[in-house]
Amino acid sequence: MCETCGCGDPNVVSVEVHDKILSVNDRTAAHNREHFVEGGVFAVNLMGSPGSGKTAVLEATARSLAGRGRIGAIAGDLETERDADRLRAVGVPAAAITTGSACHLDAEMVHKSLHHFPWRELDYLFVENVGNLVCPAIYDLGQAVNVVALSVTEGEDKPLKYPVMFRKADLVLLTKVDLLPHLDFRVEAVLDALARVMPQPDVLRVSARTGEGVTDWIAWLEGRRSAHAKGAPSAGSAHHHHS
Amino acid sequence: MHEYSLVRAMVDRVEQEARARNATAVGRLAVRIGAMSGVEPELFASAFTLCREGILAGTELDIRRSEAAWACPRCATAIPTGAVLRCAACDVPARMITGDEILLEQIEMEVP
What we know:
The complex is a heterodimer.
Chain A: E1 11-20, H1 23-39, E2 42-48, H2 54-65, E3 71-77, H3 82-89, E4 94-98, H4 107-114, E5 124-128, E6 145-151, H5 158-161, H6 163-167, E7 171-175, H7 187-195, E8 203-205, H8 214-229, H9 235-238
Parallel strand pairs in A: 2-5, 2-6, 3-4, 3-5, 6-7, 7-8
Helix pairs in contact in A: 1-4, 2-8
Chain B: H1 3-20, E1 25-34, H2 41-49, E2 60-66, E3 69-71, E4 78-79, E5 86-87, E6 92-93, E7 95-98, E8 102-111
Parallel strand pairs in B: 1-2
Antiparallel strand pairs in B: 1-8, 3-4, 3-7, 5-6
């Protein structure tokens, strides 16, 4: 009741909240991250455009890590289980999250999928996000690192067009480099673009088809995994804490 | 369009706050969206119109924007957007100062 004039109008109160709109997602992501750390599982959020070669990179990773590290994958896809099927075909335990119309995975979807997945038996858990360079960038899933696949068949200026995605990447995998001789794609141009959107640009050139660069990629993963076990921070795991 | 799921998350938060204070209506919401947050203010606003019901039926949405700003974490020199994100003098990576906010800042409610 308005006390000054007794008019019976409701009082207007203004509440300062300063809450992150994604705070519920961030809490679930932190919960996932705790699980991964305690289970000794190195979680990688793999993002990129549709057709950037995410699944092919995982197939090559599985072949290369065979006998050295146990890997599993959770694949987000709009309608099908095709990506998960491809991964199972190369011996990678894989779960599919069909998102329907959702353009990204969130921490809750990942959390639910873990309940039916033997993730504790893994050394590396890859979360293959929905093919999209916009929406997945803002959702923390609880990963240790963010990796973005960018194929040489996409434009050199992709990083400048999608700066939010590339800013949060710990590593950019430049994929399909076996096609470079047939394209006008200039690697220096994409490296320059990345330096303008990523404070610590880290880029590896790979071809899942020829196997070029896969050894370096595996070495990067193994290096990050052992640094992570010792508590070193990364852009992917720290991206919601700096401001 | 992830703006709709962001708006849903915000609406849940606002309704929770309104219930806690027995509010009868929410008059205004202020949010802050950074230029490098990955959220389109226009899409956010249009997603919000789909959620205007119940206690939020007459709610006005105030979207405050912040520009992307980068600086050297050591010497604090500003690094312009579009430049290489590294302080040449200190040889360290730049840090984002503002521009990635997706915040609910203020709720104005009518309480009995």
